[in-house]
Amino acid sequence: MTSTDQQPLGSPFSATSTAQDVTAGLDLSGTNAVVTGGYSGLGLETTRVLAAAGARVLVPARRPDIARSALADVKNCEIIPMDLADLDSVRTAAARISGSLAAIDLLMAVAGVMATPERHVGPGWESQLAANHFGHFTLACELYPLLAASGQARVVVNSSAGHTLTDIRWHDPHFRTGYDKWLAYGQAKTANALFAVHLDTLGRGDGVRAFALHPGKIITGLQREMDLQEQIDRGWVDEHGNVTGADFKTPAQGAATGLWAATSPLLDGRGGLYLEDCDVTGISAPETPMDDGGVRAYAIDPDAAARLWDLTLIATGATPISR
Known about the structure:
Blueprint (H helix, E strand, L loop, with lengths): L18 H5 L8 E5 L4 H12 L3 E6 L2 H7 L6 E5 L5 H14 L5 E4 L10 E2 L3 E2 H24 L3 E5 L22 H23 L5 E6 L13 H6 L17 H4 L1 H8 L9 E4 L2 E2 L2 E2 L10 E2 L5 H15 L7
Helix pairs in contact: 4-5, 5-6, 6-10
């Protein structure tokens, strides 16, 4: 992937398209999909649409009882207990998935946390980086043989426009010198984008292609760590929790870009790209407001992606992917 590849392809879909729109007429029978966070918010919409199109969907879930309740009416769906912030849990889930499937065609990294109070997990890792990046990184590495076995797998990683808040804080990724919940979120979302860039570099020879995306502004469970007043002050909701912010999407619209990334023939032979509004997006200048769209150059830089990959591999002890 080069910067010249990071430009729209002329998709027939847009910001207002829904998950059902981008998958209309698709037959995904015989497709195996893994959807993290696939029981709430955008993940739930993603699971429902994939299963309705005929895919078998495995949903790793930190709260398996809640997941079973949310997905009780969804056929061809299995719940796998997993906590992204606990890498032993991730490895156990990966082993269970590997025992259930011969190949994985779609890995949808939808789960995430946002703007959480300061927490550290594992050996002192900042929790948003750990859950959003380290957990998904480890899961993808452990499941890589199944992705390669597909021969045409796609890995789709939910990043966010929040990546514009900061590049990787190479000097202090775990905020040991002072915590800012929004910078921690922004760093984790930049990490998600860079992860997709280097995974695509490593995987393309095996037919494994990876994409990162901004799903749009949507009120889901992702905001659960924010109090109502903060959401009101940001202009997102009213005092009753009703969405009032401009350009907010419904969950069905928010899930559309991920499903487009997973299924669009326009992306055949492509990868390592950042998407939004059901298309590849352009590179945004450093001063461009977050809501104007686009991806910062640092979030798709191949050298930074390789550096982060190596650092994450050492930190997590995940199984290396050989080229």
